[in-house]
Amino acid sequence: MKIYFRILIAIYSLCAMGLGTLAVFAWYNPYFLNEQYDNLTFLTSQSRYSSIIFATLAFIFILLNLIFLITAFVPEKDNDVVMRKNEQGEVVISFASINAIAIIVAERFQEVNDVKSKVIKIKDSVGLVLKIKVFAEATIPNLAESMQKKIKTTIENNTGVKVETVKIQVENIQTSFKPN
Predict the structure, then answer these.
(1) Which of 26, 42, 73 is the last residue of a domain?
(2) How many domains does the chain have?
(3) pLDDT tens digits, residue range 15-27?
(4) Strand 112-122 vs strand 125-135: parallel, antiparallel, or unpaired?
């Protein structure tokens, strides 16, 4: 959820809490709302600025209600999946599945010590960014090219999702070679 939407929810929650508190006081003391109404009309009649502030706050509250009402009916896009359609229906493949395949394939290379993967959606296909740690004995250009080809073909064959790019970032070089 985006940060500005979280801020709006927080503001709305505070307003709702205030109205709820007023409702409790009104239940406890039936004359409470009359007193508050008299105070409010007195304040707004004393100064032009106070009525503008009150109207602005009321407008903001109405606007927040409209925003929440609209967002309730707008379907959320699920950006963490790739959908494939075929004759039988629809297949949804999560980014977690694509990540798992990429990590499994990358860890099969002996020169690789550690792998972190991130999937990026590119229209109907995906791109991958792999951050790896390799052993000192590795020939990095050959290893990266082999990994890119193997990861791309494995994901495309296993999931049917087109892989646009496989970016390999070597984060560190380890000194000892892992045993077979």
Answers:
(1) 73
(2) 2
(3) 788 877 877 777 7
(4) antiparallel
Q: How far apart are CA 128 and CA 149, in angstroms?
A: 12
Q: What's the CATH number where 150 sits?
A: 3.30.70.1350
Helix (H) / strand (E) containing 166: strand 163-174
pLDDT, tens digit, 9 for 90 and up, residues 48-59: 777 677 778 778
Residue 179 lies in a domain: no
Is the model's pLDDT at 177 over the cut of 90?
no
The two three-digit tokens of residue 46, written as one number = 């004393």
Domain assignment present for residue 66? The answer is yes
Residue listed under structure tokens 């790019």: 165
In 3D space, the residue among 169, 171, 177 whose CA is nearest the CA of residue 147 turns out to be: 169
Angle, CA 121 vertex, CA 119 and CA 126 arms, to 5°: 70
The predicted model scores a pTM of 0.58
106 vs 130: CA distance, rounded Å: 9
**What are the angstrom distances between the C-alpha of 77 and each of 57, 81, 82, 83?**
32, 10, 11, 12
Residue entry with tokens 């077979």 = 180
| 83 vs 89: CA distance, rounded Å | 10
Same domain, 87 and 68: no
Per the structure, the complete domain to which residue 20 belongs is given by 3-73
